[in-house]
Amino acid sequence: MPPTDPATRPKLTSRGAATRNRIVLAAAELMHVQGVAATTIDDVLAASATSKSQFYQHFDDKSELVYEVITMRADEILSWQRLRLEKVDSFRGLYHWRDAMVQRCALRRGLWGCELGSLAAELSDTDDKARASLSAHFTEWRTLLGAALERMRDSGALRPEADIRALATGL
Known about the structure:
The chain is an all-alpha fold.
């Protein structure tokens, strides 16, 4: 099937959008648990209860689906982070953020690691587009952490000379 520009695809109906979303959600879960390389299109079709024709109405190939999974996971994680980090201005707030991170991981019994980190570990050496996308998302995450640390420095919780960028990267 020849590649098509997603911008030239017809506008989705609500049913089409629901099907596309079901495919991306199923792929995201499978790729998180099994890894991107081990997840086949047939696995995704079975998990999303969709057909190959439905898949190819929405995606040219597995790579395009992977980029959608990266975007979906990043949006999910970064909006979760934004909600918590924009309130941090003290060590107490930072501890609450940390505890929420640990709880999120505990809900999965610590299995499979960070959704974005797992994708980065698997794709960064082999897919330039995925690496660039993941790097941009991690940069946004570091920016959110940096803003929280700046508020902590402004409130006196951190020393004025604290290297915010290095601390944010470390976190």
